[in-house]
Amino acid sequence: MLRAMSGPPASHEPLATRLVGTWQLLRCESPLEIEPGTRMEFRADAQLAYVIPTATGPLLVTLRWHMQDDQLHTVHQDGSNPVQVRTALGDEDVLTFDFGGPRAWYVRVT
Fold this sequence. Notes:
Layout: E1 2-4, H1 15-19, E2 21-28, E3 39-42, E4 47-52, E5 59-68, E6 71-76, E7 83-90, E8 94-98, E9 103-108
Antiparallel strand pairs: 1-7, 2-3, 2-9, 3-4, 4-5, 5-6, 6-7, 7-8, 8-9
C-alpha cells in the first residue's frame, strides 16, 4: 500500500531521511522511457546520482535534491532543468514517482 508522504511515515522519520540510499527502477508507465536498470542514489548531502545504463557504459547525471511536502525537487548542478514530482513511499520500500499521470516505481537496493 502506498501513502502520500505529506506527513511522517510509520517509522516517524521524514521521507527525505528514508530516501537516502540506492533505488533501482522496477517499472514505469508509458510514455515514460526510463531504461531498465536505472538507479538513483540519494545522498544525505542533497546530491542525487542518477545512473542510466547505456550500450557504452553507465551514464552518470549528478543532481541536487530536496523534499517539500510530498514533492521531490531535483535540479542539475548548474541550476538548469528543475523537476518536481509527487513522491510516495510504500510499506515494502517501493518508491513511487507520479509525473502527473504516468508513474515510475523504484525498489530499495541499499
